[in-house]
Amino acid sequence: MAEAKTTMTDVPVETFLGSVEPPVKRDEARVLDALFRRVTGALPQMWGATIIGYGAYRTTYESGRAVHWMRSGFSPRKSKHSLYLMGGYCDDMTAAGRADMLARLGKHSTGKSCLYVNKLADIDLAVLEQIIAADWATMLQLFPED
């Protein structure tokens, strides 16, 4: 069975944050890091070269593929921040409940398990905090701590 391409690394998160370009994305990444730390209570860990993850879980898909992945996290990309919100991907009720919050969030786009934000000034950080908290609670319920 193939190993996951993106795995947890030993690179210090602060080292990565210091390298984010452009500087405005670096500053916003630090704001997001503080928000995720506060909401999750978890220390961040690098996943691959560019993803900052909080917490981790293990599961096995129906196909038999075993997965070790972060509970939540983000990647400060040059054009958009990618926020990985696994609760809405793993649980239909969480995904359905997220619709109201997304309507209040501000300018964003979504993918299967990602929320994309161009810049933090485009969104309401209090609403983002609610979304992260709801997703985190779902992940803890679905996948209790190791």
Q: Would you write up a description of this structure?
A:
The model has no long low-confidence stretch (mean pLDDT 91). The chain has a single domain, classed as Aspartate Aminotransferase, domain 1. The chain is an alpha+beta fold and 146 residues long. Strands 1-2-3-4-6-5 form a six-stranded antiparallel sheet. Helix 2 crosses helix 5 (125-142) and helix 4 runs antiparallel to helix 5 (125-142). The longest helix has 18 residues, at 23-40. 42% of the residues lie in helices and 25% in strands.
What's the CATH C level?
A: Alpha Beta
Supply the CATH architecture.
Answer: Alpha-Beta Complex
Radius of gyration: 15 Å
Low-pLDDT runs of 5+ residues are none
Overall 3D shape = globular
Give the distance, in angstroms, between the N- and C-terminal Cα atoms.
23 Å
> What is the fold-level CATH name, i.e. the topology?
Aspartate Aminotransferase, domain 1
Defining key terms:
146 residues; alpha+beta; Aspartate Aminotransferase, domain 1; six-stranded antiparallel beta sheet; 5 helices; 42% helix; globular
Structure in a nutshell:
With 146 residues, this protein is an alpha+beta fold. It has helices spanning 13-19, 23-40, 86-90, 92-105, 125-142; strands at 44-47, 51-60, 66-76, 81-85, 109-110, 114-117.
